[in-house]
Amino acid sequence: MDEAGRSAPPELEVLEREITACRACPRLVAWREQVARDRRAAFRDQDYWARPVPGFGDPAARVAVVGLAPAAHGANRTGRMFTGDRSGDFLYAALWRTGFASQPTAVDRHDGLRLDGAWITAAVRCAPPANKPAPDERDRCRPFLERELALLTGLRVYLPLGQFGYQVLCRVLGLRGAPRFGHGVELALDNGRAIVCSYHVSQQNTFTGKLTEPMFDAVLRRARELAGL
Length: 229
Hints:
Blueprint: H1 10-21, H2 26-37, E1 56-57, E2 63-67, H3 75-78, H4 86-97, E3 118-122, H5 135-151, E4 157-160, H6 162-172, E5 186-188, E6 194-196, H7 203-206, H8 213-227
Helix pairs in contact: 1-5, 4-8
């Protein structure tokens, strides 16, 4: 059940429990737990989640945002995708401006934030060192995303953030010969669904101006349009 009291399908709840209990990648397990022990000074009094992070949002979502992986001191700390870091600040403010989120901020998983029409997930569920999952870690985690997207039966638009998320999403959807990743690139799927790409909301992109608020808002509005929202 989400913050709005909407019940998720039982299969989605089972998947969430499996995700949060996963210890399949030794390097990622060691890293996420080390980060939780060696907390940043600003978070030294907080208990870190330090587990794989499940998806979050509206179980009836028509748009799925697919990120790379949890941030070490963001979702790995708070337990909710893109929550508690600068990337999440940028993402959720944009989701609020475009009608997907009930508030512009995401502080922790109990802050009352609700999503309407959107689901937030990632290609890899554990925070990786240097924010770079290894190929075997990526592939080991992919079945979680496959099952999750299949259970969200209302999805019409997939919005990958960055090339990594786009490539994993294409594998999940069984796409071959997909166009090269680029901001704003669209791909119509044969089942009436679509992919709309965006640069990742990382500080590396938002602080340098590679991805601006108007650019990201335009992609989200396009996703709404294609999803019929």
